[in-house]
From TrEMBL:
PANTHER family xrefs: CYTOPLASMIC DYNEIN 1 HEAVY CHAIN 1, MALE FERTILITY FACTOR KL5
InterPro entries (alphabetical): DHC, Dynein_heavy_tail
GO cellular component: axonemal dynein complex
A GO molecular-function annotation: dynein light intermediate chain binding
Biological process, per Gene Ontology: microtubule-based movement
Coiled coil start-end: none
Recorded superkingdom: Eukaryota
Pfam families named among the record's database cross-references: DHC_N1
Residue ranges of domain Dynein heavy chain tail in the record: 4-166
Protein name: DYH5 protein
Length: 168
């Protein structure tokens, strides 16, 4: 029972740390007013990397052994652990899916950032791709995500036009 108590303490510490990661990942991002759409892709790539690392750690043999011992002891701490494990898996899947969809926009980021208003020829394809993401993505099709993406696209267009006007 002393071993079980020690392992439960370890799992409770992990639970607290994982909860903190989840809470931080859900907080509103503070970004500069003129940040472009590539920042959205970078954010989700970073988040995907973080959650994948966390998943790798959770699935490590060391953690599995501890969880197995606690399962055999019918520990009550496992209910919270399983909920968090599920939350981490969902967050990792969301990040992975969002990166996959945002990569479809990556080809537009270069022309959008070029110092010429000629970018207008790319806008219909860009908007069609954003529409496709909205219609097909199981995670990215929220008002918050779309607003953030359109804001960044608009910022990039404004920055490109400013650069063009200042150089002209």
């Amino acid at each position: 029972t002393e071993l079980i108590e020690k392992l439960e303490e370890v799992v409770m510490i992990w639970t607290k740390q994982i909860r903190q990661v989840l809470v931080e990942s859900e907080q509103i991002r503070r970004e500069a007013d003129d940040v472009g759409p590539s920042a959205e892709l970078e954010h989700w790539k970073s988040r995907m990397s973080s959650f994948n690392s966390l998943l790798d750690e959770i699935k490590s043999s060391r953690v599995k052994k501890i969880i197995s011992i606690l399962q055999a002891a019918r520990s009550k701490t496992l209910k919270q652990w399983k909920e968090l494990d599920g939350s981490i898996t969902i967050a990792a899947n969301e990040a992975k899916d969002n990166v996959r969809y945002l990569y479809t926009l990556d080809k537009f980021f270069g022309p959008l950032a070029s110092a010429s208003p000629v970018m207008m020829e790319h806008i219909p394809s860009l908007i069609n791709t954003v529409c496709m993401i909205f219609c097909t993505s199981p995670y990215y099709n929220t008002s918050e995500h779309m607003t953030s993406l359109f804001l960044k696209i608009t910022n990039q267009m404004i920055n490109t036009c400013k650069t063009y006007l200042c150089e002209g």
